[in-house]
Specification:
This protein is of the alpha/beta class and about 240 residues long. The protein is built from 7 helices and 8 strands. The chain has 2 domains: about 1-160, 3-Layer(aba) Sandwich (Rossmann fold); about 190-220. About 40% of the residues lie in helices and about 15% in strands. It is elongated and about 100 Å long.
Length: about 240
């Protein structure tokens, strides 16, 4: 196990490779790094040309756009972290992207990225990220596929996936909400009945249900009451 190539290296000794297919972004990042008094800044339009130069002279830090050139940032990470790429496999990589989705972040971290930053970034943000890398004591360990990984990242990703799976399982296993039982069907209206007759039938059905439920006394003990005839029955058709 060993530390990455930027650990405890001051800015005055840093050799930084910047890979971005935008010349404007290259100029912005170079200005930021020059303001931090970085010793050397090398700019490349594609990962192919940068990889050829880094094999001959490995830098201390790689800052790479996720979609730069024909070879993506993900492919570059997989090549750089291979065991046979030593000492280039120990160089930390900062991935830049304008679309930091969960899928991109997980994919980059699993491939060996040290940090992911969102474009556009401020000088203070870049300086903070580089300063964090210079203090990062995590070591590079050889993974099961023969590539170097950052210590603890694999376990963190697996724990996140397990938590997400547990949340999905809990959401799908919830018991369905029981719908309330439908009320008993009332008496179906008979063809030819007037509105008043239907009203009287409704009152009788309601009274029967209330007696069964114990809300009213039985008919033998209940006082007799005259039938209720609504006032609007006078409006019935002749």
């Amino acid at each position: 196990m060993t530390h990455h190539a930027s650990y405890a290296v001051p800015n005055e000794l840093l050799d930084v490779v910047v890979i971005d297919d935008s010349r404007n972004m290259q100029g912005i990042i170079r200005s930021m790094l020059n303001a931090m008094k970085v010793r050397r800044v090398r700019l490349f339009d594609s990962t192919e040309s940068a990889l050829h130069a880094m094999l001959h002279e490995p830098p201390n830090l790689i800052i790479c756009e996720w979609r730069a050139g024909l070879v993506s940032g993900h492919q570059l990470l997989r090549m750089v972290r291979a065991r046979f790429m030593e000492p280039l496999c120990y160089v930390p990589v900062i991935i830049m992207t304008a679309t930091p989705t969960r899928a991109i972040v997980d994919k980059a971290m699993a491939a060996g990225a040290n940090l992911i930053v969102v474009k556009p970034m401020s000088p203070a943000s870049l300086q903070e990220r580089i300063g964090w890398l210079q203090r990062d004591q995590r070591e590079l360990v050889l993974g099961p596929r023969g590539a170097f990984e950052i210590e603890g990242v694999r376990e963190t990703i697996m724990a996140q996936k397990e938590r997400a799976a547990a949340v999905r399982k809990a959401a799908t296993s919830r018991s369905p909400v029981r719908k309330p039982d439908a009320p008993p069907a009332g008496r179906e209206p008979i063809a030819g009945e007037t509105a008043a007759e239907q009203w009287q039938a409704f009152l009788r059905t309601k009274e029967q249900l209330e007696r069964k439920a114990g809300l009213l006394p039985d008919e033998d003990t209940a006082p007799q009451r005259p039938a209720v005839t609504p006032a609007w029955t006078a409006l019935r058709r002749v």
